[in-house]
Write a sequence for this structure.
């Protein structure tokens, strides 16, 4: 055997094992590029998720505040007709500064003793988002539909004694 040849074969084998045991600079740079792109995508997804959570919280607050106003209208039993507006300082001082409300009370088109109450809460950037709640309220003391003495209604209490 040629001693020169065996040295060169040993050197080639050494280089091959060294190359197989590590990465080239280009491979490392490509791997870092892929990881970087994946991280940017994950961060964008996380940001979008956080925006969705904030929007859901605002919608939940608006629904709760609208129910508070509707409960106030229910406590009035049969609210007056018209439109009222305001903020939530009366109900929750110092909280919900970026929420406003409007309550519209209308007569029913078919029934005089029913009122339609619409509560709208405005919120979000420049108050552009809304949440509305509608309820129909019946007058707890309706007016008589018939004049006394007509359609079987008695005008005088009966004076006959029961047997």
């Amino acid at each position: 055997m040629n001693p020169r040849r065996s040295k060169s074969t040993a050197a080639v084998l050494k280089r091959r094992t060294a190359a197989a045991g590590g990465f080239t600079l280009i491979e490392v740079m490509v791997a870092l590029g892929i990881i970087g792109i994946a991280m940017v995508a994950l961060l964008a997804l996380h940001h979008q998720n956080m925006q969705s959570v904030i929007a859901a919280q605002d919608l939940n607050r608006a629904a709760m505040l609208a129910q508070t106003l509707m409960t106030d209208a229910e406590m009035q039993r049969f609210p007056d007709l018209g439109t009222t507006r305001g903020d939530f300082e009366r109900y929750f001082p110092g909280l919900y500064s970026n929420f406003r409300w409007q309550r519209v009370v209308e007569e029913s088109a078919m029934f005089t003793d029913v009122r339609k109450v619409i509560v709208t809460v405005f919120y979000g950037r420049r108050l552009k988002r809304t949440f509305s709640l509608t309820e129909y309220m019946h007058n707890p003391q309706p007016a008589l539909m018939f004049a006394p003495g007509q359609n079987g209604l008695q005008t005088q209490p009966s004076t006959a004694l029961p047997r």
User: Anything to note?
Assistant: The chain has two helices and four strands. The two ends are 142 Å apart (CA to CA). The longest strand covers residues 114-123.
